[in-house]
Amino acid sequence: MLEGKVILITGSSSGIGLATAKAAIANGAKVILHGPSVQKLDAVSAELGGVPYVLGDLATAHAAERIVEEAIAIHGRLDVLVNNAAIFPRTDLDSSDGEAFDHIFAINTRSPLLLTRRVIRHMRDKGIKGSIVNIGSVNAYSGQPDLLVYSMAKGALMTMTRNIADGCAPEGIRVNQLNVGWTLTETEIETQRAQGRPDNWQSSIPPVFAPSGKILLPEEVANHVIFWASDMSAPITGQVYDVEKYTFLGRNVMSRVI
Known about the structure:
Elements: E1 6-9, H1 15-26, E2 30-35, H2 38-47, E3 53-55, H3 63-75, E4 80-83, H4 98-126, E5 131-137, H5 148-168, E6 174-180, H6 186-194, H7 218-229, E7 240-243, H8 254-257
Parallel strand pairs: 1-2, 1-4, 2-3, 4-5, 5-6, 6-7
Helix pairs in contact: 1-7, 3-4, 4-5
């Protein structure tokens, strides 16, 4: 589905990003990894047979431009950008101060904007009818109380996706977003353990959160990323697609807890 395409995936040294990298390679793409840790990237690159990577901390405003420049230099072009890198520290109303806001928005919203801007400039220069896939969250619709700033950042990402998609549609450059539900990533496992959950917490999730008995796996999410990154999803653009095992909007959970 991605034969001959060059794809840059941010935050791809673990979790959904790494699963997407593996799926993209399996679908014929030339993958470029990204992350903030050279040790993790070296290990993942070796695991994947020497896949190239670019190093960069997306908390800094100037990093996005450089990351794209270095990625373009590797194969001379970019056909697909997956804005996957994100952080989700717990912040409720009381802890949502200016510092937390700036840091979360810098990585989760500002960096996708700056990366997308530079990649689209490249696509325009080369006449590439490319695809950009933003990894959002179902929390964008409101979010849980202790994910206030994270939820706000993903809500802003939805608006950005639709806005840029509308502007670029005449050029054949597509921008779509996947609002992903609860996924069993390494970071999520660590987060749950830090909150006092037992090591086997994922095996006893209430049906209200996982009607099928299990939450999403990164590999399951990656399959959807590949579809929206590929020409198989063309010419659709400006869409926000919920990747979850139940309907999110309009769901009446009371029927499952009484």
